[in-house]
Amino acid sequence: MRVRRNTGIPSLVLAVLLLVPLASVPVFGEDNGCQGGDRVAPVTAFGHPRTTFSREPAATEADLQRLFVQYEDDVRKVLALAKWGGDPDHLFAAVLAGGATEVSLPPGTEFEWMAFRKGGKPACVENVIWKGAAPFPAWSIVIESGGYNYTLTVPKTCLNLSSTRGAKRMVPPPTCDLAAFFDAESDVITVRGSTDGAEISVTSVSEPNKAGDPAMLENTGENVWTYKPTDDGRYSFTANARHESGSQNTECSASVDVERTKPKFQCSATVDPETGVVTIDTSGSQGDVAMGGITLPDGAVGDAAGLTVTARSFDTAESLPLRPGDYTYTFAGVARLHGVEDAGSCSATVTRKSRGGAWVLRFFGAAADASGDSIMTGPVREDPNDLLSPFVSTKRMIGDGTGFGLGIERLINDRFGIELDAVFIDLDGNRIVDRGEDWVMSNPGVGFDAISLGLNVHLTPAKKYDIFVGPFVSHVSYSDSAFNATEPGFGSETGIGAKLGADFYFGWQSPWALATSIRYLAASAGDDDNEFDIDPLIATVGLGFRF
Question: Comparing 268-352 with 359-546, is the CATH topology the same?
Fold first, then answer.
């Protein structure tokens, strides 16, 4: 580097001063700063062996990076002497990151300071101007540091780092733009930011009537965030944009109004009259629907386990009162949407019908337990016309038997009915004939036929088990020709009795039932002089049908 100062000293003397070592009087630099002050030092050439910072040129960017590493300590020394306001680390980072660009500086270019060597040591001189005949090639490095942009240059022929005049400029604040949008379908607020700085981030969130939590922001892209709203109203977001150095910050904000579809719970209940199953329809609701409970007709809480999302139904068979009538079931639920709830209910009326029809037809098998009474006749002549015939005695007994029967009842109302039925039973008979010298026993059967008419009083008319009691009167006849070969015959009798019955219906509206009864009939057999009691206790089991 050749420097010429306009000091009034003849140029020959100045040239001599520039060419000899200035060991005792520093001309271009000292440890406490750059030399020169207000005087302008003209430079006409670079690369002088005694003043060049590096004897190797920085012809390529790779050369520049290598030389910066090689002479790092000297470069930092020069920056300290020049009282450079930036951070040397930022300069080295920019160079090593490939931040240098090629420039051509024309004659007349002024520098605030320029590095060189004095006695082999790093030094710098202030107020330098390029007075060469032509532009010189150089590397230009722009660094942001400490809130300023600095432009430093390095001639390619040497490493004489310099700062051009006006190369320090305050870094303008970064731009900060923020926008917020609400998507009702996804129920999400999207926040988008942009800046010409190094980064932008959302620092605060304001929800309706309360502060939000920035930690709830989810980053979904470069400078894009999403936020889940809780309530309707205005949401505000504040962002901070920063330069990489952190020297300048800019705040910006954006707001968006959230007005979402309100949840609505709407339900209707329909009843299947055949099964008693209630189906709940919530298709008119808005939001996520959940059924909350069931109130039974007696005010108790029902089991809502069956009220699922896919099949909202409830079987009333176990909880429907058995007495005929109309019974109300209430179904409560809630719709949830965007953190808001709407509760409601709907009701269904289930009718408990009578079992239908005024007639009950019963078919049954019967088993009789007779009293076991007996009658003895004789002794009489076996042949009344033969005085020589032997005397005989006859003992007759009637025992148990089985048979069948049927009946029909006309219901006057839920409590009373008139029943006509018939029972046909074969009773066991025992006949013992004693001739004195021998005896003969036989077992002829006795046909027991009873046709009865009675009043039934129904104690549980609206339950699955219909219990009834009542009196009846019966006309009883016997079939006993074998039983009464020589003894007085059996005639027809009229008896009275009482009955306890129960029809167990197969469903609360089923017409079919298991028909059972037990009855007692006071009836006798024989003639007026030879009568004995039968008094059967008759049990029946069969089927009943109401129509």
Answer: no
